[in-house]
Every structure is written in structure tokens, then in C-alpha cells.
């Protein structure tokens, strides 16, 4: 599953600095507005100690972790929904992502220019929220115009779509995101083809200074209060610290650096955990002498669906899955030992895969 998160925010809030430190790609970060023109795409390897421990037992020829794509999207200004600045390009880039990481500047530093002259994360948030909502409102109204004609002829499906679209229109017009609209889950299919920008899950990333990375500051508290009813996540991270960590070459040096700051893990690890939680994702593993590999699926996926992530033929010809729970694999030390101890379960098409399952699929095409 190719998971893609878009980093958005006003110019000079720390997006590109964060992107550079999180990904294997390098963007040209500079201390002035609009330093990013084209979206840069980088890849984060998802850190997972379970993968490492499995590899230590199996000793495979290679280890393949799962990854997340991070897209650094061009800075936004007021009027983007009407094409101002890089507006149309910016909004189009967001539409293709699975989730939005909304970076808010929550640090004071006179040496870093703010596009609006002062630090105010709530104002910054409102600018981007408004532009996304206006674009969604425009999208909803265009579809309503088409649906209205069919609804007037008595088409029941068109009438239902019209009702659902009207709810979204009213909700967006009141300054609220589509993801919080009072619409039943089954009725959301009526707007699925619109890929509404504000329907995407959002992680608010408060970019703080070093001394605030553990306990936050007044800016972070203001953001927490503002998003209380938004069904969104919030994470504090210091882009400056992450940039310093990225420059260190060895794992040991990075750990010592974190210990000196009183931190237990890099911000990128917390970011990935938050992204997975936001998108309701879990990981299962395949383990053999050729490779030990992590696979990402949506929570609630059945065994055939999980097999299909590897190859569509696996899902089409699914016969059964041989499953060992991760804890049992580590406790007994090998697949054969788990089998001897009765810890290898044979599961059918209805089995719901659990986070950490070690799986082997039987199929016939």
C-alpha cells in the first residue's frame, strides 16, 4: 500500500526543513517565502523493532521495511482557492494525498521571517482551512448543479445525492471541514468521486523550538483548543532537532543526541505512528530465508485482502493463510518451533488480520 502524506502550511513555517530531515530526498530549503515551487517527494522508512527482531531470528538475505511517501507541497497564501499565488497547483497536489500533515509555526524567532509578519498559528491555520473549504464548496456546488436537474425528474438516487451534498454545502459554508459533517458513513459514497480536500484526515504538526518539544508552549495550547472538535491529531516536533538528527551518521550518535535532549525517540517515529493511527493502518509480516518483509494494510482487512497487497493473484486464488502471532514467533524463536507448539494457526477467508501477524499464504491460480 503506497501511503502518501502531504505536508502543507504557509511559507516559512518549517515545512521544507522538516521534509529534508524526514525523507531521503533533499529539497532546497531557504529562509524566504515560496522556497518550494514543485512538490518534492521523499520516502520515509517506517521504523519497526518487530521487523528487526524477526530478522535476527530468521537471518534472511534481505530485510524490506514498509515506507511512507512524504510530499512537500508549495506554500499557500490567501486567495489560493481562486488561483492566487500557486493556488491551483497547490490544491491539486493535496487532492492526490491520503492524509494531510498541516505544519504550524509554534516558535518565536526574529531571525526567521514570517510571511505575515508575526507568529500566530491560529491565524495561519485559518488561512489554509478557509482556502481548502472554499475549494471544496466550489466542488460541491458544481456537482449540485448537475444533480439538481436529475432530482427534479424524480430520480430517487439523485434526490438522495442532492440531500447529502446540501448537508456538506451548509457545513462547509459555516467554516467547518467536510470530515466533521453530520453524514452517515454509508451516505459518504455520494461525495467519494469529489475527493474533497477537507475530508482527508489531518495531523496538525506544531513546529516548536528545542525547549518546548517535550511540554509545548502557549502556541501549542492555543492550537489544541482550536482543534478540539475537529477529529484530528496533534503532534509536537522540532524541525530544527530533526534536521540535526538527520546529519548524524550512526544510530549510536543519534541515540546519544536524543538522550542529551531528554527524548526517547526521533520525532519522525512519532509522526509515523500518528499517521498510521490517523489512517487506521496496521502492519503484518512475511518471514523466510529470502526476505523478512513488512506490509501495510487497513485495520479490519481479511486474509485474502492482505494477500492481495502482495499480489492480486494471491487474493484471487486464496486457499488459506498460515498465521503466527508476533509474540509467539519471538517467544518460540522459529516457524517450526511455533508449529510444534501448536502456535501456527490455519485461517480461512474470513480471518481478520491482526497487527504484527506473521503470515504465509497458500493460493492456486
From TrEMBL:
Protein residues bound to ATP: 12-17
TGS domain sequence ranges: 280-363
Cofactor(s) this protein requires: Mg(2+)
The keyword ATP-binding appears for this protein: yes
Known role: ATPase that binds to both the 70S ribosome and the 50S ribosomal subunit in a nucleotide-independent manner.
NCBIfam families: redox-regulated ATPase YchF
Descriptive protein name: Ribosome-binding ATPase YchF
Organism annotation: Anseongella ginsenosidimutans
Gene expressing this chain: ychF
Amino acid at each position: 500500500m503506497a501511503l502518501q502524506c502531504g505536508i502543507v502550511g504557509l511559507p516559512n513555517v518549517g515545512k521544507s526543513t522538516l521534509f529534508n530531515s524526514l525523507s531521503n530526498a533533499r529539497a532546497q530549503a531557504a529562509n524566504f517565502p515560496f522556497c518550494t515551487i514543485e512538490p518534492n517527494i521523499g520516502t520515509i522508512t517506517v521504523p519497526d523493532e518487530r521487523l528487526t527482531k524477526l530478522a535476527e531470528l530468521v537471518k534472511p538475505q534481505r530485510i524490506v521495511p514498509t515506507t511512507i511517501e512524504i510530499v512537500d507541497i508549495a506554500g499557500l497564501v490567501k486567495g489560493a482557492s481562486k488561483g492566487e499565488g500557486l493556488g491551483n497547483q497547490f490544491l491539486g497536489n493535496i487532492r492526490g494525498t491520503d492524509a494531510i500533515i498541516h505544519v504550524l509555526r509554534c516558535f518565536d524567532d526574529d531571525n526567521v521571517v514570517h510571511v505575515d509578519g508575526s507568529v500566530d498559528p491560529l491565524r495561519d491555520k485559518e488561512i489554509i482551512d478557509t482556502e481548502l473549504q472554499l475549494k471544496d464548496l466550489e466542488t460541491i456546488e458544481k456537482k449540485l448543479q448537475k444533480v439538481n436537474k436529475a432530482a427534479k425528474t424524480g430520480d430517487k438516487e439523485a434526490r438522495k445525492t442532492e440531500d447529502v451534498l446540501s448537508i456538506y454545502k451548509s457545513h462547509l459554508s459555516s467554516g467547518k471541514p467536510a470530515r466533521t459533517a453530520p453524514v452517515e458513513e454509508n451516505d459518504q459514497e455520494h461525495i467519494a468521486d469529489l475527493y474533497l480536500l477537507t475530508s482527508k484526515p489531518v495531523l496538525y504538526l506544531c513546529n516548536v523550538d528545542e525547549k518546548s518539544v517535550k511540554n509545548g508552549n502557549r502556541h501549542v495550547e492555543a492550537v489544541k483548543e482550536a482543534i478540539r472538535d475537529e477529529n484530528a491529531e496533534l503532534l509536537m516536533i522540532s524541525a530544527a532537532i530533526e534536521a540535526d538528527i538527520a546529519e548524524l551518521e550512526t544510530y549510536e550518535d543519534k541515540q546519544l543526541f536524543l538522550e542529551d535532549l531528554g527524548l526517547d525517540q526521533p520525532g519522525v517515529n512519532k509522526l509515523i505512528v500518528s499517521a498510521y493511527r490517523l489512517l487506521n493502518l496496521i502492519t503484518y509480516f512475511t518471514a523466510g530465508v529470502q526476505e523478512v518483509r513488512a506490509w501495510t494494510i487497513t485495520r479490519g482487512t481479511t486474509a485474502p485482502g492482505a494477500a492481495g497487497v502482495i499480489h492480486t493473484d494471491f487474493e484471487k486464488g486464496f486457499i488459506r493463510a498460515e498465521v503466527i502471532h508476533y509474540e509467539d514467533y519471538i517467544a518460540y524463536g522459529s516457524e517450526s518451533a511455533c508449529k510444534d507448539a501448536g502456535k501456527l494457526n490455519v485461517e480461512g477467508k474470513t480471518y481478520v488480520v491482526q497487527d504484527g501477524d506473521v503470515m504465509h499464504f497458500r493460493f492456486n491460480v
